[in-house]
Amino acid sequence: MASTTESTDSFKPYRLKHTLTGHKRDVAGVKFSDDGRFLASCSADKTVRTYSVSSPDVPHNEFHGHEAGISDLAFSSDGRLLATASDDRTVRLWDVATGSLLKTLTGHTNYVFCVNFHPQFNTLASGSFDETVRIWDVKSGKCLKVLPAHSDPVTAVHYNLDGSMIVSSSYDGLCRIWDASTGHCIKTLIDDENPPVSFVKFSPNGKFILVGTLDNTLRLWNFSTGQFLKTYTGHVNSKYCISSTFSITNGKYIVSGSEDNCVYLWELQSRKVVQKLEGHTDAVISVSCHPKENMIASGALGTDKTVKIWSQEED
Q: Which residues contact 160 (CB under 8 A, 6 or more apart)?
């Protein structure tokens, strides 16, 4: 099932624990809630599903209302709200407990591709194929700011730890850091080769950004100096916007999906691939790490269309 390559002595391999089969088309996004109680998935089938992490095989809720496929989703940090980004050009806000639609945020003029909440969950940011980042007021559903962010579709948006900054990425090859309150661009990061940027997120401590590019590469940048520190390779990513993340519950690792149907884990410092999780039958385009347990969720494209949950072996 899961092969271990160049394993370090201390690394315990992950094993497949659950396969969740409800979605009818591509699984575009998977996310754990900040408190670790829920997992959510969104799909090209226009639906979102939530699962209780303690017993995930039966969905906790299904969310219906989008008129086209959903590319991304995010929990508010208190776990009560879920935001979704859809090809129907809207962001929608849902009540996690009941599955009911609370707000529809309209204004983007093309597919909404990515969404994330401010840590204090009073605002959220979305990125779109219309090349803008929009900042929304959660309570009223009104758009507070439109950032003319990029010259190509925006592939990811993410707030840092205290919510003072937003990072965005785009097919235009740029990552930009924005002052979240003023909407001013603080910094633009550009690589010499300038490959399309398919994903970006802040590290948990907020000092670094993890950047995925469509040249089969992940890079760790120190954004305050504009230097890139580490490169992670071995996975396949030249076509899709594949998410990656930090695993910090047991050592420090980088986790990413891949177009070879696997989930890759690298040791953050040594950049070595410590494990390749095998089991999906199509490209894995979304991954999420549980905030407290050594657990990874992954979601894959249409010939697979499952969510898989992987856990590290207990002692």
A: 166, 167, 202, 206
In single-letter form, the type of residue at position 202 comes to: F
Q: How far apart are CA 225 and CA 206, in angstroms?
A: 14
Asked if 20 and 301 count as a contact pair (C-beta separation under 8 A), the reply is: no
Residue type, 107: G
What's the longest Cα–Cα distance across the chain? Answer: 52
CB 211 within 8 A of CB 204: no
Query: What tokens appear for 191 in the block?
Result: 């690589």
Is the pTM higher than 0.85?
A: yes
Amino acid symbol at 183: G
Rg (CA), the chain: 18
CA distance 198 to 273: 21
Is pLDDT of 97 > 70?
yes
Do 201 and 158 form a contact (C-beta atoms < 8 A)? yes
Residue showing tokens 């700011």: 145
Residues forming beta bridges with residue 163, ordered by sequence position: none
Which DSSP symbol is given to 25?
Answer: S
As a whole number of angstroms, the distance between CA 48 and CA 40 comes to 7
DSSP state of 196: P
Phi, psi of 268 (to 5 degrees): -60, -50
Q: What is the mean pLDDT of residues 162-184?
A: 97
